[in-house]
Design brief:
Largest sheet: 8 strands, mixed
Structural class: alpha/beta
Number of strands: 20
CATH topology of the largest domain: FAD/NAD(P)-binding domain
Helix content: 25-40%
CATH class of the largest domain: Alpha Beta
Shape: elongated
CATH architecture of the largest domain: 3-Layer(bba) Sandwich
Number of helices: 8
Length: about 325
């Protein structure tokens, strides 16, 4: 595998920032298109807490680390370079987009840098969990966030849903598809904040509503066995769903001057269907462009971005050749 121990220096056709599903998928397509490509990966995938990933055809149940390892092996077959480092800064110096021009300068934490004609930013997002004792420690095991990712594996167990805002009612309704025993713990949400429609739907789905602040989780023999309220009452539960606050990792996009749009889950770059941002020459994919991108979506997004870049660079080179 072409994986560097030190930070690279040089000029690339494309630098991909982030080595998750989106970044590796983009790099695979770019390498196969014979473009000199560098992937810079800090090694902090969002799904690290999960033992398995589900819902990806032919890869259902695979460990995320194994999935990424296979991806790194595949991109190496096509000469793609990968460096274990973090991009700390990126800039566009205003150079033209003609053949041989590399307007993007990337600075790495290791101290060196590289230049590229195009960028793919796949820096993802960070999950900010509710500050309830036990939640962070159990996250990805029996504290979960996505029923599509984990619902089958915990089906028919007694679920708890820890309210973190208005979206938690929707989450409680959704997880009821996988269990008939669901309780919504309002935690810091007041009962009067629930609308009449909320209450009717929760009742129709058989979801119990438990008022009161959650003080922590009950753990016995390294297993979640209950949810403990501040008043001392404990409800037997073996699975708890939470809705983490999504914190997009958009620092590099902000430095480049990308346009953003506000969503219920944070501000994300404005993009076209291929992931092209408002910054000429910059694409994005995966959770860097939206909260709801699962692994399969991220891989698809990386593929779309890469094919668009291949065409973009080709047309730029042809136009330059014609002008000469």
């Amino acid at each position: 595998m072409t994986e560097k121990k030190k930070s690279p220096a040089g000029t690339y056709d494309v630098i991909v920032v982030g080595g998750g599903a989106a970044g590796l998928s983009a790099a695979l397509v770019l390498g196969r298109a014979r473009l000199r490509t560098l992937v810079v990966d800090a090694g902090e995938p969002r799904n690290t807490p999960s033992e398995h990933m589900q819902g990806y055809l032919t890869r259902d149940g695979m460990a995320p680390a194994e999935f990424l390892a296979l991806g790194r092996e595949e991109i190496a077959r096509y000469g793609v370079e990968l460096v274990r480092d973090r991009v700390t800064d990126v800039s566009r110096d205003g150079a033209g987009a003609g053949a041989g021009d590399a307007p993007f300068a990337v600075r790495l934490a290791g101290g060196e840098g590289a230049r590229a004609r195009r960028l793919v930013v796949t820096t993802g997002l960070r999950d900010e969990l509710p500050a309830v004792p036990g939640v962070a420690e159990r996250f990805g095991r029996d504290v979960l966030h996505c029923p599509f990712c984990h619902g089958w594996e915990v089906r028919d167990e007694p679920f708890g849903v820890l309210a973190a805002g208005p979206q938690s009612v929707h989450q409680a309704l959704m997880v009821s598809r996988w269990s008939a025993d669901v309780r919504l713990f309002l935690h810091t949400v007041a009962e009067e904040e629930l609308s009449d429609d909320d209450l009717r739907r929760l009742a129709a789905a058989g979801v119990g509503v438990v008022p009161g602040e959650v003080a922590g989780l009950r753990i016995e023999d390294d297993r979640l066995t209950g949810v403990r309220l501040a008043d001392g009452a404990t409800h037997d539960r073996t699975v708890v769903f939470v809705a983490p606050k999504a914190v997009p990792q958009t620092g590099l996009m902000e430095r480049l001057g990308a346009e953003f749009q506000e969503t219920p889950f944070g501000a994300y770059p404005v993009v076209d269907p291929t992931g092209r941002t408002t910054v000429p020459g910059v694409w994005t994919a995966g959770n860097a462009m939206g909260f709801a991108e699962q692994v399969v979506h991220a891989a698809s997004g990386g593929y779309r971005a890469a094919t668009a870049i291949v065409g973009d660079l080709l047309m730029s080179d042809l136009d330059t050749a014609v002008a000469e």
